């Protein structure tokens, strides 16, 4: 209910501020959406800021830091969105400006993770023993933050797509964290169980905030989340995975974010190498599917279901590990 009220208030304010999205000219299927209010991700962030303090217990440093990092990346996205709205164009911050801001945050958090007693430099495998990669965890975490935030950002191209995919990821992560908590309690690691319990709570709050936002963002969307929303979501996905040492799960459960990034890289590389030829009708991949005739809602369901299936696969492997 909190999220529903907040998102409706934010939508009303965005309409009054005439914060309309300028749609790229070459995305012909979306020209009718030009002028739709953007920066709706502000509602998601406000919902998190209001609900997390109510449900996160014992001043959990990992959950609180996740909230702060989400806010930090959201501010970067807000600056980008504000410039777009102010100038009535689809280009905000320069690419290098956005990357430098994201990189600065990622470096700080990567160093913190390396020095933290809970996160440290070990990684959980989908099945089997943990592995220790020492200081290599720092560049890995930096890469993960940049890749995931931009992957979610690229996935945010159709009504509800990024929201549904992130919900599936967060719920899958919640189940995996719950199993980690069982193992921690069995080993007598109370601190780890408490920290992971709060991370699980964060995942559920984020899922609830996104469900509230989807009431306005499902096709046809009344509001877009904008970069303030997509970068914040990407930061949350990266944080909950890194802080629970499940970074290696991202390419599996977050495969659709990977597809978004990979399709753009492949398209650009092939286009330059062949001087004008394309692999996809349009990148990211969800636009290729749209060009093939699939509706926005169907593409969102496909991305959601694939993420759910990958999550179930990982949860199944983890259950086997806990039982055996």
Counting DSSP E segments of at least 2 residues, the number of strands comes to 2
| SS strand fraction | under 5%
- The largest beta-sheet arranges its strands as 1-2
**Proportion in helices:** over 70%
Average per-residue pLDDT, rounded, comes to: 90
Rg: 19 Å
Shape: globular
Total number of helices: 12
- Subunit organisation of the chains: single chain
Structural class: mainly alpha
| Total tally of structural domains | 1
What composes the largest sheet? 2 strands, antiparallel
How far do the termini sit from each other? 41 Å
Order of helices and strands: HHHHEEHHHHHHHH
Low-confidence stretches: none
What would your notes on this structure say?
With 324 residues, this protein is mostly helical. The protein has helices at 2-16, 41-55, 61-87, 95-115, 137-155, 161-186, 190-217, 226-243, 250-253, 255-273, 285-291, 296-323; strands spanning 122-123, 131-132. The protein has 12 helices and 2 strands, in the order H-H-H-H-E-E-H-H-H-H-H-H-H-H. Strands 1-2 form a two-stranded antiparallel sheet. A hairpin with a 7-residue loop joins strand 1 (122-123) and strand 2 (131-132). Helix 4 packs across helix 5 (137-155).
Give the topology, please:
Elements: H1 2-16, H2 41-55, H3 61-87, H4 95-115, E1 122-123, E2 131-132, H5 137-155, H6 161-186, H7 190-217, H8 226-243, H9 250-253, H10 255-273, H11 285-291, H12 296-323
Antiparallel strand pairs: 1-2
Helix pairs in contact: 1-2, 1-7, 2-3, 2-7, 2-8, 3-4, 3-7, 3-8, 4-5, 5-8, 5-10, 6-7, 6-8, 6-12
